[in-house]
Every structure is written in structure tokens, then in C-alpha cells.
């Protein structure tokens, strides 16, 4: 489409799941594309999170691209939940198979993006000192890309090795014979802990909040298992497109409170034995909306923890309290709780024994010094907005995105934020994002963005921007849906509560992947309702503003 030198139709930021698919879809639709990737390889989240035990916890059949039946047929996953390394091999295969690498400039960060109103173009500045103009920008930067430090005094004084799970070194460190401390017990911490237990001299876990961990039941896949899924793959994907979580399992409507104790016990046991990430949430329709129903699940899992962990005092520290089950992301592991039965693993409960400071030799707690050779920070991310707010993004009138989002991020449908025209966010604030199958959400967003750009091209439209009123109404709707659930009761990263000073606003849309997809499709079918479209100026004619036709 673009005829001008040094102007591309779409600048894509990131070469992970969303960046790769954006390159493919937009290029295949005839747009010129240029992608920038900070790492020296493909993979995004899976490139940076190479820590021991890193693997996805949605089944591989669902956490993978659905756009190509051939790709589905030819790629053999080794396990139900593949490792980060295997996911990277898959993404590298995708990049090679669809010839995407030639569009990616590696080792290059986008530092700034400024909208030039007179030209309806974005000017990007990159870490190699160059600039590029683009008609559209697609930050495919992921929701969990900017690591959050642990905010503990003395962190810079530690004399041993120190790593954040979200920036794991390419060269695997040696663990044998070392005294290792892990701070954080979210999904990353749990995976590190169950993997390193027994592989180092001593593992000390520093736990601020106990989490719910359910069995992973990970296993190798046989050719027969793969064949079984392939035989019904199309139906599986079609079902996933209309369900709440973007996986092929619709939500039940039955209340946990209406079931008999025996029925509940049978369902919970089944969810434990045939475990999967969303299994307990799918036992009954009200687990995430009714505190009493939720507590039944929570207490069932606490019972399992008491059974597994032999020392009652340690078991007590591992019992999750203070937030409803599922409102902080539950974790999967086949041996997390049993590692605490080992003599070479100890648990420090930071609620009763806080960290005073980090010192060169290790960690000083209120009960004394714990000497360490290696410290692993599994302390999470500046999630959902961090990747974008770390870029100097300036929209209409030079307004900074950071200024617009001071009181919390806003975006219409999680696709565009008003005042920043022609910039599409992939799985952005206000979309289901991390609360549904991310790979399904990414494809849905990229498909929508591609179709939108085709529409603009076909209709001679130079600029699209979210209408501020539509954006406000959507964000209100996002909050209204949250208020009908128990998610509000947790200090989770979904609301920015994990980052000191970050504005707290619940950002993922909880209305469900299927409903959300329908809403996005309806908006497009109505001529981009809630967006303002501006026609390309023709010689001798004024530029015409069009409200999205049904707005
Ligand atoms: O990060 P987290 P994560 N002192 O924010 C603690 C996805 N993911 O990297 O809960 C002491 O969940 C913090 O304590 P608290 C997945 O969506 C997926 O583990 O704030 N502790 C918490 O225990 C996941 O939800 C996979 O009180 C401190 C931990 O660090 C998301 O990424 C694998 C602290 C952070 O947990 C993030 O997971 C990995 C401090 N100063 C990640 N600061 C899979 O697919 C923080 N903590 C399997």
C-alpha cells in the first residue's frame, strides 16, 4: 500500500505469538510491515522466560495457532504442557514456515513513537538510533514483558548470582551445590521451586502470599493421543471461539450451593485427579461469583495441602487465605507441595518473618541471616500496561500515553486508546487478555485489526481513533462486569496491585472470550461503531471526518 520510501504500512513491536501472527496476516493482506524485536531471537514471553521449569499451563492443543490446519497437522507437541524451549522451537518453525524472519529487525527496541497529525503517520525511534514512519503501529508487546523488581532494600549489594525469571540468561546457570533463594510464589516461582528442589544444595522459598496450586498432570503425548485431537481439531477450535475462556469447555450453569455435599466432593475430586488450569472454576457456574461456593473449592484444596505436607506448621503456612480461589491466578504443579517434605527445602513465611534487607551474603530476615549463593526473583511483572508505558508514546497534540493513563489504562475494546490514532493494541486493557486463552485472543485481535486496516484501505480512510465516549462506556462496562465477580477481592496484577504506586484498575474484560469476540465483530459490521474515521484528503478536497457509521 505504501509508496513512500522509509514509510511502512505497519510497524509491529515484538516477535512473540502476537507479533509473528501480525506480520503474517498483515503481509498476506498486502501491507508492508516492519517488526522490531528487543531480543536476538523469536519467542517473546517464551524467549525471556527461560527459567528452570518454565512451561505453559494451558494444553498445547489450545495454546497454539489455529490459523493453519497444515501447521496443526505437521507440528508434534511432545507434552501436554510444553516447555518454554519447545514453545520457542514451535514459534521458530512458524517464523520459518511462513517466511516471517525477513520482516523482523532483532536486537532493536522501539524507544519512542510519536503521531504526526499533519501526515497521519507514526514516527518511531529505535534503539539503533534510526527512525521509521508507519501508517499504523501494532504493539505486540505482550502483557507480561516488563519484570517487576522485588523492592527490597540492599538488592544491589548481593554478592552472589541474581536472576529475574522474566529475564533468564541464555546460558543456563549451574545450580548444583548452591544455596538458592527464591522470592515469589506465583506461577513462575512455583515452577522454579518444584524444578530446582533436589537439584541444588539447599532451596529457601520466601513466600509473601500462599497460592492455590493444583496438580498439572503433565505427560508425554503418544501418536494416538495426537491423532485423537487432530481428528476433531476444527470442532475443538470452533467451540473454543465461543466459550468464556477460549478453550473447548463451556461453563456449567449449576450452582455449587445447589449440589449435594457428595456431588460436590465427586466433582472436586475429579477436578483434582483430572486436573487442568480451569478445572475447578468449571466445576460449577458460580465458583468465581459466589463467595460461599468459592470457599468450598478453597477449603477442598486446603484439605489436599494438609494431606500432602507432612509438617503441620509448614502446611499451615502454605494454606492460601485472604483472596478467593481463582482471583489470583492458580498454579499447576505435580509436586509443588511435596517439595516441602524434603530436608533440603525450607519455607520462610514473610508475613510472620519479613525480609529486613538483602546483604552481600544473602537475605536478612527478622529471624536472622540466610546465606545464599543465588537469588531468584520470581516477583512478577508490571503487567498489561508496562510494555507500552515503557515506550515514550505520544498521540494527538503530543499527549503522552503515560499522562493519559495516570489514573488507570483505558482502551476501547482493548483495541485502541482514544487520542492515539492508528495504534492498535493486541490483547490490550479492556480485552479478556490473560483471563482467556491468550493464543486464541491474539488471533482474534490480529484478525480484527487486519480486517479493519483492509476496510480503511478500501474506503480511502487515513485515520481511525477510538471515540472517548465509547472508550469510557466500554471501560465502565469492564468494571461493571468485574463487580459481579469475586475478582475485586484480590490484590492481583490484573488490577496493578502488585506494583507500588501503579494506578489500580481491573483491566481484563471478564465478559468471556466468545461474547467479546461477538461484540468486536458487531462493532466492525456496523462500520466501526465507536470509532472516528477520517478520510484521506484528495487534491482540492478537505479531509472529511466520519463517525463510525453507527456511532
Ligand atoms: O508473577 P506473580 P509470576 N517481596 O505476580 C511475590 C503468567 N505465567 O511471574 O502475591 C516478596 O504472579 C508475589 O507476592 P504477592 C501467569 O499469568 C504463566 O509468577 O504479591 N514477594 C508473588 O508471590 C502469571 O499469573 C506461566 O504477595 C514478592 C510473586 O512474587 C503471570 O505470568 C508461568 C515481592 C509474583 O507472582 C505472572 O506470574 C509463569 C516482594 N517485594 C507465569 N514482590 C504458565 O503458563 C512480589 N512478590 C505456567
UniProtKB/TrEMBL annotation:
Recite the UniProt keywords alphabetically.
FAD, Flavoprotein, Monooxygenase, NADP, Oxidoreductase
Molecular function GO terms recorded: monooxygenase activity
User: What start and end residues bound the annotated signal peptide?
Assistant: none
Q: Which domain of life is it from?
A: Bacteria
Family matches, as InterPro entries: FAD-binding_Monooxygenases, FAD/NAD-bd_sf
Q: Which cofactor does it need?
A: FAD
Which SUPFAM superfamilies does the entry link to?
Answer: FAD/NAD(P)-binding domain
Q: Describe the family membership recorded for this protein in Swiss-Prot or TrEMBL.
A: Belongs to the FAD-binding monooxygenase family.
PANTHER family referenced in this protein's UniProt entry, alphabetically: L-ORNITHINE N(5)-MONOOXYGENASE-RELATED
| Name of the protein in question | NAD(P)/FAD-dependent oxidoreductase
The source organism is: Alicycliphilus denitrificans
Q: What does UniProt list as this organism's lineage?
A: Bacteria, Pseudomonadati, Pseudomonadota, Betaproteobacteria, Burkholderiales
Amino acid at each position: 500500500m505504501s509508496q513512500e520510501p522509509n514509510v511502512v504500512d505497519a510497524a509491529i513491536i515484538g516477535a512473540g505469538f502476537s507479533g509473528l501472527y501480525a506480520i503474517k496476516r498483515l503481509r498476506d493482506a498486502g501491507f508492508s510491515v516492519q517488526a522490531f524485536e528487543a531480543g536476538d531471537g523469536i519467542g517473546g514471553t517464551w524467549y525471556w522466560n527461560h527459567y528452570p521449569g518454565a512451561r505453559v499451563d494451558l494444553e498445547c492443543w489450545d495454546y497454539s495457532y489455529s490459523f493453519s490446519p497444515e501447521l496443526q497437522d505437521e507440528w508434534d507437541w511432545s507434552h501436554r504442557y510444553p516447555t518454554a524451549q519447545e514453545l520457542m522451537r514451535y514459534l521458530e518453525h512458524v517464523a520459518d514456515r511462513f517466511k516471517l524472519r525477513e520482516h523482523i529487525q532483532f536486537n532493536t527496541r522501539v524507544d519512542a513513537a510519536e503521531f504526526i497529525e499533519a501526515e497521519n503517520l507514526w514516527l518511531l525511534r529505535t534503539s539503533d538510533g534510526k527512525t521509521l514512519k508507519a501508517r499504523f503501529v501494532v504493539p505486540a508487546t505482550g502483557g507480561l514483558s516488563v519484570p517487576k523488581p522485588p523492592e527490597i532494600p540492599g538488592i544491589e549489594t548481593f554478592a552472589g548470582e541474581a536472576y529475574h525469571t522474566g529475564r533468564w540468561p541464555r546460558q543456563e546457570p549451574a545450580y548444583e551445590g548452591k544455596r538458592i533463594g527464591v522470592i515469589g510464589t506465583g506461577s513462575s516461582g512455583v515452577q522454579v521451586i518444584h524444578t530446582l528442589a533436589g537439584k541444588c544444595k539447599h532451596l529457601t522459598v520466601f513466600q509473601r502470599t500462599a497460592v492455590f496450586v493444583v496438580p498439572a498432570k503433565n505427560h508425554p503425548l503418544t501418536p494416538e493421543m495426537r491423532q485423537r485431537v487432530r481428528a476433531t481439531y476444527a470442532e475443538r477450535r470452533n467451540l473454543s471461539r465461543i466459550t468464556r475462556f477460549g478453550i473447548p469447555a463451556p461453563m456449567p450453569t449449576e450452582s455449587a450451593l445447589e449440589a449435594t455435599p457428595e456431588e460436590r466432593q465427586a466433582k472436586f475430586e475429579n477436578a483434582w485427579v483430572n486436573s487442568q488450569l480451569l478445572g475447578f472454576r468449571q466445576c460449577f457456574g458460580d465458583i468465581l461469583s459466589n463467595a460461599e461456593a468459592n470457599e468450598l473449592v478453597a477449603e477442598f484444596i486446603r484439605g489436599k495441602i494438609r494431606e500432602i505436607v507432612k509438617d503441620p506448621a509448614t502446611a499451615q503456612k502454605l494454606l492460601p487465605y485472604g483472596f478467593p480461589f481463582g482471583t489470583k491466578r492458580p498454579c499447576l504443579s505435580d509436586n509443588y507441595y511435596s517439595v516441602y517434605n524434603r530436608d533440603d527445602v525450607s519455607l520462610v513465611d514473610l508475613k510472620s518473618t519479613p525480609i529486613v534487607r538483602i546483604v552481600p551474603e544473602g537475605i536478612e530476615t527478622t529471624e536472622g541471616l540466610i546465606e545464599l549463593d543465588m537469588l531468584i526473583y520470581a516477583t512478577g511483572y508490571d503487567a498489561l500496561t508496562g510494555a507500552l508505558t515503557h515506550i515514550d508514546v505520544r498521540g494527538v497534540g503530543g499527549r503522552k500515553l503515560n499522562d493519559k493513563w495516570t489514573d488507570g489504562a483505558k482502551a476501547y475494546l482493548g483495541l485502541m486508546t482514544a487520542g492515539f490514532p492508528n495504534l492498535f493494541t493486541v490483547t490490550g486493557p479492556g480485552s479478556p487478555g490473560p483471563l482467556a486463552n491468550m493464543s486464541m485472543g491474539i488471533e482474534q485481535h490480529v484478525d480484527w485489526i487486519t480486517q479493519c486496516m483492509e476496510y480503511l484501505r478500501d474506503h480511502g480512510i487515513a485515520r481511525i481513533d477510538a471515540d472517548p465516549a465509547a472508550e469510557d462506556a466500554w471501560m465502565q462496562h469492564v468494571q461493571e462486569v468485574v463487580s459481579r465477580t469475586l475478582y475485586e477481592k484480590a490484590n492481583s496484577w490484573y488490577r496493578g496491585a502488585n506494583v507500588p504506586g501503579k494506578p489500580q484498575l481491573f483491566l481484563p474484560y471478564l465478559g468471556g472470550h466468545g461474547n467479546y469476540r461477538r461484540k468486536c465483530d458487531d462493532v466492525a459490521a456496523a462500520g466501526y461503531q465507536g470509532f472516528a474515521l477520517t478520510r484521506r484528503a484528495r487534491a482540492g478536497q478537505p479531509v472529511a471526518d466520519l463517525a463510525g457509521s453507527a456511532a
